[in-house]
Amino acid sequence: MSRLELSTGPLPAAPQTRMNSNDRPHLTIRTDGRLLPSAPCNSQQILSKKYFAVPYCSSIFNICKMTSSSESTITIIGAGPVGLYTAFLLAKAGISVHIFEKEAAVLQSPRAIVYHPVVVEDMKRSGIFQDVLDVGYVGRTGLQWRLPKSTESLASLPSNDKATSILLGQHDLADIFLQRLVEYKHVKVQFSTALESFEEGNDEVNCNLSTSQTTGDGQTKFEHRTKYLIGADGARSTVRKKASIPYEGFAWEDFRMVAANMDYDIPRYNGWGDASFICDPELWAVVVYCGKGNVWRVASAERLVAGKEEEWDEEAGIKRLYGRLGKLLNGPTDTAKVLAIKPYSLHQRCAATFVRGRIILAGDAAHHTDWNALPDTQITNPVGGLGLATGLLDASFLGRCLERIFTNKEPDAAAVLAEYNEKRRKVFLENTSPIATANRNRLIGATEEARKERAEYFAKINKLDMDFLKELVENQMAMASA
Ligand SMILES: Cc1cc2nc3c(=O)[nH]c(=O)nc-3n(C[C@H](O)[C@H](O)[C@H](O)COP(=O)(O)OP(=O)(O)OC[C@H]3O[C@@H](n4cnc5c(N)ncnc54)[C@H](O)[C@@H]3O)c2cc1C
Questions:
Q1: Bridge partners of 230?
Q2: 240 with 259, same domain?
């Protein structure tokens, strides 16, 4: 058995105050665990797109010393945004936490980009918002629904100063969390290390992990003991599977979604704002500004023929994407430069429970609506940007629950975690899931009933029906648990 310990030795001094994005230390870890001083990815460089489409430099902690056993109060599997946000909140509460991530760096695939006011409010409370604001782009033009190529919108939901949305790639958000974790000595982050299995005892969980790092004694497998194990390991969660917690839900098999980041001046040729939902039974899509240069996310639907799902071939997929772009957008779409592309299949699922004994699920490991990436990644419905939003709010509530157990010493830990399970499952089943489904159906719906619902919905938005808008805001704010 061997243990990899975090060392902040070679890192620049831990920040005493919040740094702006240009000051932050940027370090890259190699699979052998050595730290490389990597090129900084400050906003200027991001603007020049130099680091945008490639796994640039998630700032990562140094791993340098191996010992024969390890333990932490809390262990998190998965250094995605949900795992890292949970770690940040626990770190602030003084709780020792160790994160294991199977990849060598934070995943870079094109996924979450929008963070709604309910998440912004939570980030303000947790003290991370200014960091996010430094790097992210504040949405200014609200959300429009439109037909393909249409410069006129069907409906327009304006943004306002009191309800700010932030546009920022989720890998950048993860990078911000990592930067802040550098401040805490009781947090360890270990990449290139996968959870394989665990055994749960009365007082602790014993995790079995494997690492691709070369260890001092040549071992690649080791054990780690923890009071609670959090599965923030995404939709194919090993933690959920090994805990035998089933997903309940269903799959949509008629379409898949292809998410692409591209360099194309959409406002110039189309006059569109930051975020557009494209309504069309075949060509439905979500088009969102990535907040940097001319980089846009176009997530467009691709019909699947039942029983004929082909393996994803990126070259062929990009060719088909250009075919759709010509029908979705105005201007010379053949000049658009595809920076990153990933296909996702669609489904809607929720874990039967988010807590079993000392095992806790959060984020996509606990729930995901509509979208399931092929075949190696799975994710949450981008129509409405609710997946990660719900996951970050899981993290927030879970952080407070664990603080009650470990800092406030509430005696009945099981009851506190039962509250987490009950409240967060309820939010997913009664808020996130129905809102995400309605968002999707509103884009696709071709039946008379769907058209009627859409027309009524748009009419209320366009005449700024205050009761209706208040209800929209309240439904979203209810995604946070008190
Ligand atoms: C195109 C698209 C657009 C989206 N847009 C939005 C949006 O605008 N807003 C929004 O809120 N949501 C959005 N989502 C959803 C969002 O991407 C997910 O909800 C989010 O990624 C969930 O984060 P997570 O941390 O739970 O999981 P992940 O980001 O999937 O992270 C899980 C991590 O666990 C690691 N892992 C897995 N197994 C193991 C193991 N055994 N051992 C160690 N590590 C492991 C993985 O490598 C990964 O790094 C979008 C999704 C897609 C596909």
A1: 76, 360
A2: no
**Domains of the chain: total:** 2
Domain match, 229 and 264 both:
no
Beta strands in 55-200 (DSSP E): 62-67, 70-77, 97-100, 114-115, 137-138, 143-146, 155-157, 166-167, 187-190, 193-200
Mutate to test the pocket of ligand 1, among 172, 173, 298, 380 (most ligand atoms within 8 A of CB): 380
Domain boundary among 317, 337, 363: 363
* Mutation test residue for ligand 1: of 379, 428, 432, the one with most atoms within 8 Å of CB: 379
Q: Does any domain span residue 375?
A: no
Q: Work out which ligand 1 atom sits closest to the CA atom of 288.
A: 8
Q: Cβ(391) to ligand 1 under 6 A? A: yes
Structure confidence at residue 433 (pLDDT): 86
- Res. 34: pLDDT tops 90: no
Residue 366 CA to ligand 1 centre (angstroms): 11
pLDDT digits (tens, 9 = 90+) for 39-83: 333 323 322 322 222 222 333 443 334 445 689 999 999 999 999
Give yes or no: residues 35 and 24 share one domain: yes
Which residue's CA is the closest to the ligand 1 atom numbered 20? 388
132 shares its domain with 214: no
63 plus 145 within the same structural domain? no
Which structural domain, as residue segments, surrounds residue 280? 114-169+249-349+429-477
Residue 371 near ligand 1, beta carbon < 6 Å: yes
157 lies in the same domain as 14: no
For the record, the structure tokens of 216 come out as 């001092």
Confidence band for 161, pLDDT divided at 50, 70 and 90: low
Where does the pLDDT of residue 427 fall: very low under 50, low under 70, confident under 90, or very high at 90 and above?
very high
Please check whether residues 7 and 67 belong to one and the same domain. yes
* Cβ of residue 382 lying under 6 Å from some atom of ligand 1: yes
Q: What is the spatial distance between Cα 120 and Cα 354, in angstroms, rounded to a whole number?
A: 24
Phi/psi of residue 256, nearest 5 degrees: -120, 170
Tokens 């998190």 belong to 76
The alpha carbon of residue 271 and the mean position of all alpha carbons in its chain are separated, in whole angstroms, by: 29
Q: Is residue 383 part of a domain?
A: no
Measured from the CB, is residue 394 less than 6 Å from ligand 1?
no
Atom of ligand 1 nearest to the CA of 235: 30
Structure-token pair, residue 358: 């000392």
Q: Write the residue with the smallest CA distance to atom 6 of ligand 1.
A: 112
pLDDT digits (tens, 9 = 90+) for 78-133: 999 999 999 999 999 999 999 999 999 998 888 889 999 999 999 999 999 999 99
Ligand 1 binding pocket includes 111 (Cβ within 6 Å): yes
| CATH number, position 75 | 3.50.50.60
Q: Measured over all CA atoms, what is the biggest interatomic distance in the chain, rounded to whole angstroms?
A: 69
Tokens in use for 307? 């029983």
Find the CATH number of the domain harbouring 310. Answer: 3.30.9.30
The answer, yes or no, to whether any atom of ligand 1 lies below 6 A from the CB of 363, is: yes
